[in-house]
Design goal:
- By secondary structure, the chain is α/β, with parallel strands linked by helices.
- It has 8 helices and 11 strands.
- It has one domain: Rossmann fold.
- The radius of gyration is 17 Å and the shape is globular.
């Protein structure tokens, strides 16, 4: 991909508690804003419960293995069992959930989940997570993309072979991304974002990886790949996931400018929808 692909953007719903654009300083390249990522929380759907199509137990295990193989620690929790303290302690959230995944074990956990979404902590959402938490507008507003019933779809599962956008740090230096996977199409984009990876369907390009940095430095990635464990058997697809984690954690920018010890996260001041 020689240049970023552009897609139509729909305006978000506006809710008093899910406005997210920040104005925090990024004088240190964002290191002062995001802080140190020590605690990674991966919340997973449950196979056979949260939808009939995805083996969340297996794919979440595969994602966790890739993260750990990269030298990082990750805690995996089923979404229905996540407690408020789990969300509060997380420096970064990875979501691999489905349409019927609960947003926490109880109302207190759901409130902590919403607090995390409103904060500047980095977020990586995978594949069917775009269908998750539909009762919480804050989720789609943070993710910046959503599945639209009756419009969004995917062609039959099959080989994916696409060149990433080499102008973005996630795609720079990566070769062809190949996997056996689903390719979502006709998703609704709420905010402008860099399309790091895309595929063509019915004569139109559709994003497979969206990376967004909000004013104030908060980072969010939606990776539409990851239907089954077959996806994660591809070395190039695993490389893409590692690059997404690296960008979200600001490894390159902060390598020579470490932030203060511990976490420096907080709510992002609202400046609009």
């Amino acid at each position: 991909m020689s240049s970023p692909r552009r897609f139509a953007v729909a305006g978000p719903d506006t809710h008093e508690d899910d406005r997210h654009l920040g104005s925090r300083s990024t004088d240190q390249g964002g290191c002062d804003t995001v802080g140190v990522v020590n605690e990674i929380l991966l919340i997973s759907g449950r196979t056979g419960r949260d939808d009939p199509w995805h083996d969340f137990d297996a794919t979440s295990a595969a994602v966790a293995a890739i993260i750990r193989d990269s030298g990082l620690a990750v805690t995996v929790r089923e979404s229905a069992a996540v407690e408020a303290a789990d969300f509060a302690d997380a420096d970064m959230l990875v979501v691999n959930c489905g349409a019927d995944s609960p947003p926490g074990a109880d109302p207190a956990a759901t409130a902590a989940f919403l607090d995390l979404l409103a904060s500047d902590r980095p977020l990586l959402a995978l594949h069917a997570s775009v269908l998750a938490f539909s009762a919480l507008p804050q989720w789609a507003n943070r993710l910046g993309v959503r599945w639209v019933p009756g419009a969004s779809m995917h062609p039959p599962i099959g080989p994916v072979a696409e060149e990433p956008d080499a102008t973005h740090p996630i795609g720079a230096g990566l070769g062809l991304i190949e996997a056996y996977d689903e390719r979502y199409a006709h998703l609704e984009l709420r905010y402008a974002a860099t399309t790091v990876l895309a595929h063509g369907h019915d004569g139109t390009d559709h994003p497979l990886c969206l990376a967004r940095e909000d004013p104030g430095g908060r980072r969010t990635v939606y990776d539409a790949l990851g239907h089954g464990v077959e996806s994660y058997r591809s070395a190039s697809r695993r490389d893409l996931l590692r690059r997404e984690m690296t960008w979200l954690r600001r490894v390159q920018e902060c390598a020579d400018r470490p932030g203060p010890p511990g976490r420096a996260h907080g709510a992002v001041p609202a400046t609009g929808g």
